[in-house]
Amino acid sequence: MERLLTEYLGYVTVEKGLAHNSCLAYKRDLTKYLAFLDDFGISKIDEVCPEIITGFLDALKRAGLAPASIARTVACLRGFHKFLVLEEMSSVNPTEDLVTPKKPLRLPGVLSIDQVEALLAQSFPKTPGGCRDRAMLETLYACGLRVSELIGLDTGDLDFDGGCLICTGKGSKQRLVPFGGGAGEAIQDYLALRSVLSKSRYRETALFLNARGTRLSRQSGWKIVKKYAANVGITRIYPHSLRHSFATHLLKGGADLRAVQEMLGHASVSTTQIYTSLSRDDLREIYRESHPRAR
User: Fold this and answer.
1) Rounded to an integer, what distance in angstroms lies between the CA atom of residue 93 and that of residue 83?
2) What domain count does the chain have?
3) Strands 164-168 vs 158-159: parallel, antiparallel or unpaired
4) pLDDT tens digits, the chain, 295 residues: what are they?
5) Which of 204, 222, 221 is closest to 213 using CA atoms?
6) Active-site residues: which are they?
7) 33, 1 in Cβ contact below 8 A?
8) Residue 260 neighbours by CB distance under 10 Å
9) Among 18, 105, 130, 162, which residue's Cβ finds the most Cβ atoms within 10 Å?
């Protein structure tokens, strides 16, 4: 069983090119699954039947696993068993008729335009670190990046003449994202002082550096966002809040859904459509307040 797990993880990492965090999640899911099979007395993969998998998923539900995590586990099990059949490591696929549980529509936390303005207009320290922090926040909102994508930027990913940057997203897929004047100015101010942080590490290509002159970690990037949000009284903020705000504000301003999808790096437009739900809520509120017969 362990060999099957190793083979599959190698496949999704190398051949499918899944992001590192996705591979870790798959490993966690499958490790729990194989432990469940072992507890059930199953030693061969062909002994697994649909009822066993249903029992495993029911156990996850009873343990309080979120619907989104269960849906990911179902996708993981499907991929695992399909791979085993294709590679002739198994003769049956017990997940063929497995139904993916529907995830409840969960609208993301979005900052208002006034909140974003307050966040970016606050006074930042006139230090290399302060200039870096301002540039990070401006870029997150200007480009709709994930925090992991932001700290993954290299200095060579910037094109000031074209006003855009190259971002490497999930699955190592690259996309071109424009940035506005505010972000461009903040990045250039930071670059003028970046050498103070880089110290003797002249070969360090990372755009955003920590005090040791190396690339910031994702956790450090997130702490910076929370710190400056707290400064202006924003207590409910999440790693994707500025990304969600970027998409919602663009759609409110009349941006094309497909264009927003491309800038966010979503594989499917259906993922981007969640932001149109937020916009529709605004339209309904405007209608209720403005139309004489709305009530």
Assistant:
1) 9
2) 2
3) antiparallel
4) 889 999 999 998 888 888 788 889 899 999 999 999 998 888 899 999 999 999 999 999 888 888 888 888 999 999 999 999 999 999 989 998 887 666 665 656 789 999 999 999 999 999 999 999 999 999 999 999 999 999 999 999 999 999 999 999 887 889 999 998 899 999 999 999 999 988 766 688 999 999 999 999 999 999 999 999 999 999 888 888 999 999 999 988 888 888 999 999 888 887 787 777 665 666 566 557 665 665 5
5) 204
6) 146, 170, 240, 243, 266, 275
7) no
8) 21
9) 18
Same domain, 167 and 282: yes
Say whether both 164 and 214 belong to one domain: yes
* Token pair for 262: 């491309």
For 164, phi and psi rounded to 5 degrees?
Answer: -150, 170
CB atoms within 10 A of CB 64: 7
Domain boundary, last residue among 41, 71, 86? 86
185 CB-side CA count, 13 A: 4
For residue 82, give the CATH number of its domain.
1.10.150.130
**In terms of pTM, does the model score above 0.85?**
no
Clarify whether residues 160 and 207 are in a common domain: yes
Note whether residue 127 is domain-resident: yes
